[in-house]
Recover the amino acids of this structure.
């Protein structure tokens, strides 16, 4: 039998140690995720670590370290598909990025165990758990710090509403006023608002502005004839 010919006790025991290490490390990482009721919990992280260890250990046993490195590169790219499955988009919010990153780290832990880097596997496990637990108070503290509106990078737009026949003149006026305020225009768009009115929307190149300066531009536009409405806004979503 091929099994009897290929079976060697010491390499087999080495594989057992690698699998046990991957199982324990994956369980430690997954326990924290399970406690917080995340999408990928205890079993998922254990299976990811064991799977990565199995692939790398098999490659190393058959073809040596060079082939193990090749398999690790496939594990790194392949785990991305699994991580994408736990990322959910709810309206403007994206959830699951941290859990997906944790799965990626579990695969790295398993790969370390699979190539007999047990110390590195346990060390990486400590850092992953620390990142998911010890940094939470720091993240919460940072999130509570108030942010000044003018310091937020965003997409800024200035718009005015005018009659259809004045669209060309008002378009040039809007661009001229913004250029004079040192806010170059990246894009100008004319949007129909009924049969008699249009809205001219200027998207600024700048990602940081002074609110008072745009307020002054808007106030100046409102004093011009044929300008029915003018305003500016900021969009912080990508």
């Amino acid at each position: 039998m091929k099994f009897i010919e290929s079976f060697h006790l010491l390499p087999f025991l080495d594989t057992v140690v690698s699998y046990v290490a991957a199982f324990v490390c994956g369980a430690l990482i997954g326990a924290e995720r399970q406690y917080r009721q995340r999408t990928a919990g205890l079993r998922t992280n254990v299976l990811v670590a064991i799977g990565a260890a199995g692939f790398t250990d098999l490659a190393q046993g058959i073809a040596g370290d060079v082939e193990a490195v090749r398999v690790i590169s496939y594990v790194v790219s392949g785990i991305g598909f699994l991580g994408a499955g736990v990322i959910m988009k709810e309206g403007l919010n994206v959830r699951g990025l941290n859990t997906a990153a944790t799965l990626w780290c579990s695969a790295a832990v398993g790969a370390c165990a699979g190539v007999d880097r047990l110390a590195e596997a346990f060390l990486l496990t400590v850092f992953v758990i620390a990142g998911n637990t010890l940094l939470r108070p720091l993240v919460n503290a940072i999130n509570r710090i108030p942010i000044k509106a003018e310091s937020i990078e965003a997409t800024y737009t200035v718009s005015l509403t005018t009659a259809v026949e004045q669209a060309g003149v008002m378009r040039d006026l809007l661009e001229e006023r913004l250029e004079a305020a040192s806010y170059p225009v990246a894009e100008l768009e004319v949007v129909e608002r009924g049969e008699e009115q249009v809205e001219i929307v200027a998207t600024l190149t700048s990602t940081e502005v002074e609110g008072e300066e745009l307020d002054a531009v808007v106030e100046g536009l409102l004093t011009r004839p044929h300008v029915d409405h003018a305003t500016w806004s900021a969009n912080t979503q990508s």
Remarks:
- The first helix runs from residue 2 to 6.
- The mean pLDDT is 85.
- The longest strand covers residues 155-163.
